[in-house]
Amino acid sequence: MRTKLTCCVLLLLCGCGTSGTIQRLPDVKVESGPLDTRSELSMHALSQLGVPYVYGGSTPGEGFDCSGLVQYVYERATGLKLPRTTYGLVKVGRLIESEALQPGDLVFYNTLSRAYSHVGIYLGERRFIHAPSSNGVVRIESMESDYWAQRYNGARRLLPGG
Predict the structure, then answer these.
(1) How many CB atoms lie within 10 A of CB 92?
(2) Which of 8, 14, 16, 66 is an active site residue?
């Protein structure tokens, strides 16, 4: 079920499937670089869709909290060992403007009446993936929804480029 959901999400993120048909694209040789790392991050994050929220959780088997998801995805996709808390994460990388966001950047929110109390991974097109406590599973949200837009605290880039 999660594999089908991940494939559907990937098709939507790529803009495929909107006309009711899927066309085969020509084979393209992709060179390694920051874009590959960003794609790898997105793929690892999307593969966790539907994993239950668990406070303090840091693996798919036990569930994730927001920073546990970020730490898990980054370690698997890049080999980077990140801080375990949102407060630690907000100190790594470099601050970036919202208009400059790229997939793989970290986005921070004030969800507990204190700055930087929640973190997610930016996917592109003003969407991010995170492990929220409400509704209990890793999911994708729009940064432009009223709830998230009002709580946005900033973003950080951990990867080179852009």
Answers:
(1) 14
(2) 66
* Single-letter code of the amino acid located at 143: M
Could you tell me the two tokens for 30?
């992709």
Task: For residue 21, name the pLDDT band (cuts at 50, 70, 90).
Answer: very low
What are the structure tokens assigned to 107, written together?
């986005």
- The pTM assigned to this predicted structure is 0.79
Tokens coding 124: 């592109």
Token pair 């790229």 is found at: 102
Pick from 93, 127, 86, 129: nearest CA to 108: 86
Task: Detail the DSSP E strand segments found in the chain.
Answer: 58-59, 63-64, 94-96, 106-109, 118-124, 127-130, 139-142, 152-157
The CATH class for the domain spanning 2-9+37-157 reads alpha beta
Pairing of strands 63-64, 58-59: antiparallel
Which of 112, 109, 110 minimizes the C-alpha distance to 120?
A: 109
pLDDT digits (tens, 9 = 90+) for 39-97: 999 999 999 999 999 999 999 999 999 999 999 999 999 999 999 999 999 999 999 99
State the catalytic residue, choosing from 8, 16, 44, 118.
Answer: 118
Dump pLDDT digits (tens) for 85-103.
999 999 999 999 999 999 9
Q: Is 66 a catalytic residue?
A: yes
